[in-house]
Write a structure and sequence with these properties.
494 residues, two-stranded antiparallel sheet, 20 helices, globular
């Protein structure tokens, strides 16, 4: 196929942002601005669906590979997809138009600039998932910080500047070490091409330090305990669309990095540090779940639940079991859908009552029934109810964990119970109970755009809960090949 489909996916949102840049932002132009952004992101989604249709899931080879010389004898622009990366591209292109639709009520000023930031961020995120050169990956990985920094810092809440800088500094400092590691890899091997590095391998004696350098960046971005504290602050202050992008896609870049680079390039070091990952993952699952139980702010509760869910992801990845890694990817896709929906649900009531505090609500089931039903669905998906996508991911992760380490799996299973406790506790206090606050009686149910957005997220949540085969078929061969290569490298001490 000669058509550069991956470059088109990366560049199209930026082209849309370019058009918006020359559109004056005012109330009269807001409809046009939003239409252009929505059209651009929707076309990109259709293009990603076309990519998925063309994708051959029977091979683990990288497909649709594009390569251009950027800096002679140093950096090549190289992109491609395999079964592991294509689902994250689909998730990105699916969530972005829903974010743009959701700005109706939440963004009142400088809409054009906000949508430019969202579209440019989409370009960077797609670039991360299809980069096949370490330098290109790093550039896309770090560039994504800038639009998110602006989204939080300009359109966020009262403490937006503090939260934006905390987010930026945490993630940037972690990534400096990854840049040093990439330079070191180039110095050792003479290349930053990921496919070449897979075939060459990296000497065991260098792997531990390089693994830790990559880990410093991915751990902050995931985020893993104890470097997770930036996430609740960022979520609380970010506008609804910003929270959706942050939870649904940005956190997944680190999980993808663990699979692609930590396991792919440093198998010996991954084996050495697996106990560390298990320990931090279990702490994240149990500790942050208990913290979530104590929250009075809905956004903070969902933010801490994200840390717990990503704890399951890191746990599953480092089991080095087929089920564990498959479960981690499905869990990331599911969490992308469900957490996006939960933040949007919070945004719906916040736009009406201007409060995120749980105590503000109660007894609204009779006033906004459509909202209550959809909120219930996403709450149950977040706690991993069978029949939802959340169950498939968690079940496979725990199955992989039981195969590798029984004790870790048992402790992680307790997190499922605590997760159910804080999600049901949240739902009970917000939706049921006595209607004490009389202002709640003035609330109106979901409007058309809110119904479209939440229904669009509910359909795949239920579909993949009952029928996860499309996801498993896409990733199965690539993961099997990854594990096989990992074990071979380990056996040969490369």
């Amino acid at each position: 196929m000669n058509f550069p489909i991956l470059s088109s996916l990366i560049l199209l949102p930026t082209v849309g942002a370019f058009f918006l840049f020359f559109t004056r932002s005012n109330k009269q132009n807001n409809f046009t601005v939003k239409y252009v952004a929505l059209f651009t992101s929707f076309v990109n989604f259709l293009l990603s669906i076309y990519l998925w249709i063309l994708f051959d899931h029977t091979t683990s080879e990288f497909q649709f590979v594009e390569q251009r010389i950027w800096i002679e004898d140093f950096i090549n622009y190289k992109v491609g997809v395999d079964g592991i990366s294509i689902l994250f591209i689909l998730l990105t292109t699916f969530i972005t138009p829903l974010c743009i639709l959701s700005v109706n009520n939440s963004i009142k000023e400088r809409l054009s600039e906000f949508l430019i930031a969202v579209l440019i961020m989409e370009s960077f995120m797609i670039g991360v998932f299809c980069s096949l050169d370490l330098v290109i990956f790093y550039l896309f990985f770090e560039a994504g910080l800038i639009p998110m920094f602006l989204i939080i810092g300009i359109w966020g809440g009262a403490r937006r500047v503090y939260s934006a800088f905390k987010f930026f500094l945490y993630t940037l400092l972690g990534s400096v070490l990854m840049l040093v590691a990439i330079i070191t890899i180039y110095w050792l091997t003479g290349t930053t091409d990921v496919i070449e590095l897979y075939s060459l391998g990296i000497e065991t004696k260098y792997q531990n330090l390089l693994w830790l350098a990559f880990f410093s960046s991915f751990a902050v971005k995931t985020p893993m305990w104890p470097v997770h504290t930036w996430l609740p602050d960022a979520h609380v202050e970010a506008p609804t669309a910003g929270s959706v992008l942050l939870a649904a896609i940005l956190l997944k870049m680190a999980g993808y990095g663990f699979i692609r680079f930590s396991l792919g390039l440093f198998p010996a070091a991954s084996e050495v540090f697996t106990p560390l990952i298990y320990t931090l993952s279990v702490i994240a699952i149990i500790f942050t779940s208990f913290i979530a139980l104590m929250q009075e702010d809905m956004k903070k509760l969902i933010a801490y639940s994200s840390v717990a869910h990503m704890g399951y992801v890191t746990l599953g990845i480092f089991t080095i079991q087929q089920q564990g890694i498959e479960g981690s990817i499905i869990q990331m896709i599911s969490h992308g859908l469900v957490s996006a929906a939960l933040f949007l649900c919070v945004g719906v009531v916040y736009d009406r009552m201007h409060s995120r505090l749980i105590d503000t609500y109660g007894g609204i089931v009779s006033i906004i029934p459509k909202y209550s039903v959809l909120f219930m669905l996403f709450t149950l998906a977040a706690l991993g109810l069978p029949g939802t996508s959340g169950f498939v991911g968690e079940f496979l992760i725990l199955m992989g964990a039981f195969k590798d380490n029984f004790l870790v799996a048992v402790i992680a299973s307790i997190g499922v119970i605590i997760g159910a406790a804080y999600m049901l506790w949240l739902y009970k206090r917000v939706i049921f109970g006595k209607l004490i606050n009389n202002d709640l009686k003035k609330m109106i149910d979901l409007n058309r755009s809110e119904s479209i957005i939440l229904t669009s997220l509910a359909i795949p949540t239920l579909f993949f809960g009952f029928y996860p085969d499309p996801l498993i078929n896409t990733i199965e061969v690539s993961i099997s090949d990854l594990i096989e290569t990992y074990n071979f490298r380990l056996a040969s001490k490369i």
